[in-house]
Specification:
Layout (H helix, E strand, L loop, with lengths): L6 H24 L4 E6 L2 E6 H44 L9
Antiparallel strand pairs: 1-2
Helix pairs in contact: 1-2
Length: about 100
């Protein structure tokens, strides 16, 4: 089952993104500033703390939903791979050796 499969990379990046948002949220809790720097793309903007908190919560919710969706897709792909392996081993017996998950 070689070939190009970008899913694990996307899954890892989503998980890292979720952790980064959690870290940013924790840093904001520790901060006592009323105006904080918030990165939007490649630019930092000075924004009120309350607005940053709201944006971070929304971003965390979105990241969690994306991660959940990717986990479901991963399970589906793994199930399809297992079924294809059964078919291929049934057809070719020991003359093939497929990679493990």
């Amino acid at each position: 089952m070689g070939g190009f499969c970008p899913q694990p990379l996307i899954y890892l990046k989503s998980n890292e993104s979720n952790e980064s948002l959690e870290d940013a949220s924790n840093e904001l809790i520790l901060s006592d500033e009323d105006v904080v720097r918030f990165q939007i793309g490649e630019v930092f903007a000075h924004m009120p703390r309350e607005e940053v908190e709201i944006r971070l919560e929304k971003m965390k919710e979105d990241a969690s939903k994306d991660l959940e969706r990717l986990e479901e897709e991963k399970e589906s792909v793994l199930a399809q791979m297992a079924e294809l392996k059964k078919i291929l081993y049934g057809k070719f017996k020991d003359s093939i050796n497929l990679e493990e998950d």
